[in-house]
Amino acid sequence: MTKAYEGHDCLYVAVDCIIFGFDGTEIKALLVKRALEPGNGMWSLMGGFVGANESVGNAASRVLENLTGLDNVYMEQLYCFGDVNRDEAERVVSIAYFALINLDNYKEALLKKHQAGWFSLNQIPTMIFDHKEMIALSLERLRQKAIAYPIGFELLPAKFTMQQLQALYEAVYNTHFDKRNFTKKILSLNLLNRLTEKEKATSRKGSFLYMFDKKKYKQLKKQGIKLL
């Protein structure tokens, strides 16, 4: 130990990942069964300790990939949780990250491997430590970001209907939008490309599919656009 650091307490640094997905109706959080004490068998976020030779961000990416099998996922640092008594076993500071994934890309086999499950945000079970607080703060951040940034598209398939897009934003904000006004507002931003393809699973006539145009968004971003 460097002399300048002698006499100071050491502590553990961990990362916890709040992972959101959208099932077409609800925003859901991916939780796992904890396999060690304290809290063995309780529901938990997926997390782990930061290695001596990795950055905090790399540790979060590692944890996220282990749980989802995905390595190209929207993720951002949320908050530092450092209450002295948050972990009964040791003094642990956790850096929380929240991530958004498309459920179509998630491998069901991983649910069994990690004893994981998707939970509606209004039916979150009892969880260890401050993990419920992490989820609540993540939802608040998602709502703040989704107004001005198109991060919600991370939760949708690459091709989606306007109805699916509206259902997503209604789930994020737990409210109902007028269909005509929502469609008019979204299309006025010129961020979507309408395809010739139609989704016909829900109606005989079918609904046009759209794709998000990232290039157009980058051009408009400097103007401070608001999606809603």
Tell me what you see in this structure.
The protein has 228 residues and is of the alpha+beta class. The chain folds into 2 domains: 3-148, Nucleoside Triphosphate Pyrophosphohydrolase, CATH 3.90.79.10; 156-221, Arc Repressor Mutant, subunit A (Orthogonal Bundle). The chain contains 6 helices and 10 strands, in the order ββββαββαβαβααββα. The protein has helices at residues 56-68, 109-113, 131-148, 162-173, 179-188, 214-221; strands at 12-22, 27-33, 43-44, 46-49, 74-81, 92-100, 116-120, 160-161, 192-199, 207-212. A hairpin with a 4-residue loop joins strand 1 and strand 2.
Shape: elongated
Secondary-structure-based class equals alpha+beta
Mean pLDDT: 91
**Helix count, DSSP H or I runs of 4 or more residues:** 6
CATH class of the largest domain: Alpha Beta
- Can you tell me the CATH superfamily of the largest domain? Nucleoside Triphosphate Pyrophosphohydrolase
Q: State the share of residues found in helices, binned by percent.
A: 25-40%
Overall strand count: 10
* Element pattern in H and E: EEEEHEEHEHEHHEEH
Gap from first CA to last CA? 53 Å
Determine the CATH topology of the largest domain.
Nucleoside Triphosphate Pyrophosphohydrolase
CATH architecture of the largest domain: Alpha-Beta Complex
